[in-house]
């Protein structure tokens, strides 16, 4: 399994040319493509703040993006929530959404597809870009 950061998920669904070749390859060959529910919140927030425009209604976009083959919405368990809360002590920046996504990858032993330099510099999670 791999986990997609929010921007990687958006790009995979709506703008695949924005992904790196390594990211595309990882997605193509992954048995399961994990999505953290906080990514749904991030997308909704960006749409509400006019920082993101989708090619269809937000609810339909999310529903169809989650229905793609091999995609699995990964529950935010207590273990993930607690791990995310402790990531600041390990040096990860304070963005709660990023912490939940990173903790999801860490708790599932999965690589995280992300372009985010701050996350890629965090040595506790394997990243692909």
General description of the model:
The chain has 129 residues and is an alpha/beta fold. The protein has one domain: 5'-nuclease (Rossmann fold, 3-Layer(aba) Sandwich), CATH 3.40.50.1010. 50% of the residues lie in helices and 11% in strands. A five-stranded parallel β-sheet has the order 3-2-1-4-5. Helix 7 links the parallel strand 4 and strand 5. Helix 5 packs across helix 6. The longest helix is centred in the last third of the chain and has 13 residues.
Principal-axes geometry comes out as globular
Strand order of the largest sheet: 3-2-1-4-5
How many angstroms separate the termini? 16 Å
CATH class: Alpha Beta
Number of domains: 1
Number of helices: 7
**Biggest sheet descriptor:** 5 strands, parallel
Rg estimate, integer Å: 14 Å
Give me the count of strands.
5
Secondary-structure content class = alpha/beta
CATH architecture: 3-Layer(aba) Sandwich
Q: Spell out the helices and strands N to C.
A: EHHEHHEHHEHE
Proportion of strand residues: 5-15%
For this structure, the CATH topology is Rossmann fold
Helix percent band: 40-55%
Average pLDDT across residues?
Answer: 97
Stretches where pLDDT is under 50 for at least 5 consecutive residues are none
Under CATH, the homologous superfamily reads 5'-nuclease
